[in-house]
Amino acid sequence: MIRSCVIGWPISHSRSPLIHGYWLKKYGIEGSYTRQPVAPETLATFVSELGASGFSGCNVTLPHKEAVFALVTRADESTERLGAVNTVYLRDGETLGTNTDGEGFINSLKQAIPDLSLAGTRAMVLGAGGASLAVVNALLEQGVEELVVANRTLERAEQLRRRFGARVAPLAWAQAGEQLGDCGLLVNTTSLGMKGQPELQLDLSHLAVDTVVTDIVYTPLRTRLLSDAAGRGNRVVEGLGMLLHQAVRGFSLWFGVTPEVTPELHDLVARDIDPEYRR
Q: Which CA distances in Å does 235 have to 15, 49, 115, 123?
């Protein structure tokens, strides 16, 4: 039986077992995917003994993504730019690391809005913390011409410019609203608007009606930012899609089948987040 897991500290909140369990059943694979609480002080031992413990790999969530990057034998080029790993897999005695957050973000956008073209456009990302790295990298890989990064601490946004290059344009948080006019995409990567966190306060009056608005927050399923944007007539993409799509490549690496993100899977996880959810 093939075994995989998700590691973090804490880990009880993770919905990854629900996602991978659905696919294991759907594709008739004899395997398991479990939560494994791993404290920071035991992380190096867990990763080094992953294969000996019977696992074919694992997902990595907070607070371990950067630490695991330093523990794997090697990572792919895109993951090297991020310095963070969310997926570990074993090949020929090596412990390899990759990061699927960026492709999860892009594939979620493409599934929701198939005609969305990012090449040559101007986009804005709210936030310059750890969650923004994969989104910024992915958008640049898609050919975004200018990527405005608005952050409360401007220095953090300037660090992203130094990391990713001149197409990243740092912006003071207070100026974000007035700079929305010619953006084709607006992305919130902050925790603002998440259940239990303060709401995101942003003036959308300058937002063009054809701008796509998305939020990586998925609790609640539709944040106030997305509700406000949809109320103006903008197309919106909820954060749950990124969670589902980032899981695809890991499942393929461990279990040998590339799974599909279906409406049935979306609704299963959506109901787990919000029992009142109805499509």
A: 26, 46, 12, 15
